[in-house]
Structure formats: C-alpha cells, structure tokens
Amino acid sequence: MSGLYAKSALQTAFVELLNQRPFDKITVVDIVRLAGVSRNTFYYWYSDTYALLDDLFFTQTQRILQDDRSFGSWLDGFRHAMQFVGDNRRAVYHIYHSIGRDRLEQFLYQVTRSDITSAVTQMSAGLEVRPADIRDLSAFYTAALIGLAVRWLDGGMKEDPDAYLSNMEKLLRGNIRSALSRSCGEEPQNG
What we know:
elongated; single chain; 10 helices; 2 domains; about 0% strand; Arc Repressor Mutant, subunit A
C-alpha cells in the first residue's frame, strides 16, 4: 500500500469510526484495523488520534480553499464550509461533544474567514475601500457565522441550515456592500 493511499485510508477509517462513536472512544487499534494498515504505518503519519484529527481538518480545509469558486452571495462560502459538516453529521456531532470541539471550531473559522474575505473583497469592486475595512468587515461576518454554527451544533444540528441561511441572506442582503460604500465615504445604493 503506497504511503499517500495509507494516509487516506487512515483518514477514511477515522471518519467512519467517528460516525459510529465519540472521538474519545476511538483507539489507534480501531483505526488501523478498519484501515487495513499496521500500527507502524499509523505512527509513521501521526503521533496520536489528535494529530490525525488535525490532519483531517487540514486536508479538508485545503480541499475547500483550493476549489475555484466565485460568490453570488457572502453566504455561499459558508455553505461550502458547512458541506463537510453536513456530509459527516454524526462524526461532527461526536467531535463537537468531545475534546475535539476546539479543533472543529478552528476548522470552521479557517475556511469561513477565507471565504468571507474573498466575498467581501469581490463586493468591494469599484470602491476605494481601505484593506483594514475589508479585514474588519470580514472578521465581523466570520464571527457571526461561526456563532450561528456553534448554536446549530449545540442544538443537535436539527434545523435545516440551508433554509436558515437563506433567510439570513434575504434579511441581510446588501449590507456588506452598503458598509463598504460607507467606509469610503460614498452613499450606499439600495439593495
């Protein structure tokens, strides 16, 4: 088994196990048995299950950030970040309600911050906006979205996040462009 294939097999097995049980109930033996690799292979790639969790989130973050995308709205990037969460709902629940919670929040933050910054930058086209204003507005919307995600996770992920986000998009439509216009002394346009 090639090295990268073994690493991928370890991540796949780990996610499968996370869909079955909490993070703190998964052992290296469980992972290697399901992945069909040796313990030495596991320890070649990872020092422990926390390192595997960190690498899983890093891999997912890189995959998401490398996707070529343009934004129709500022929420499109967040929807993209939440795809991993939705595709692995039970695994995410187990991570969130264990010691891995801070790692999950960091993953969501990294992806969301990058996507929101790209969206805000795109919305600033044609305006002479200070980079600090783009940074601050991006930080605000990132914090708001992460807060919503944490609330959704705390509630057991029962609500349909896309319906909720669609309503938020309707309520807040035009706010980023208006804020950007105000930041450079222009009167914001309606919408």
